[in-house]
Specification:
This protein has 132 residues and is mainly beta. The chain is built from 1 helix and 10 strands, in the order ββββββαββββ. The strands form 2 sheets. Strands 1, 2, 3, 6, 7, 8, 9 and 10 form an 8-stranded antiparallel beta sheet that branches.
Length: 132
């Protein structure tokens, strides 16, 4: 019988500027995306195809913190400073990283009956996505 992989959110570690981020909201903790396709294709009027490699490595990561996260103050300070920092997101199966990342703006906020969330959008200038 084959081993069934088991996901555990506690195995996911995010470091920003070499500091471990903690205190995520319930649900999606972190999401990421490469901003453009890695290849571009086109076909001329006579049906001749061509492919070009897109060397754009811009990426974006969204970090959803609980409003009472101990990392909220840290990320807010980075957002206000416009500091460019390294970022690494690692799980048992993947590693997403970049040597140059910047927080786009301080988190939007709201208050209500539930613990508020604070969402940070991080722009990554050289995102690498690896399946381990």
């Amino acid at each position: 019988m084959a081993d069934i992989p088991v996901f555990n959110a506690k195995d996911v570690v995010l470091t920003v500027d070499n500091v471990v981020v903690k205190g995520f909201q319930a649900g999606d903790m972190i999401s990421y995306t490469i901003k453009e396709d890695r290849v571009q294709t086109e076909v001329d009027a006579q049906g001749f195809p061509s492919i070009s490699i897109n060397n754009n490595r811009l990426g974006q990561m969204t970090v959803n913190l609980s409003g009472n996260s101990p990392s909220h103050k840290f990320l807010n300070g980075l957002a206000n400073s416009n500091k460019v920092v390294p970022i690494v997101l690692k799980s048992a199966d993947e590693k997403i990283s970049g040597t140059q990342a910047i927080i786009a703006k301080p988190a939007d906020g709201q208050f209500g009956i539930q613990t508020p969330k604070r969402t940070y959008t991080i722009e990554i200038l050289d995102m690498a996505v690896e399946a381990l």
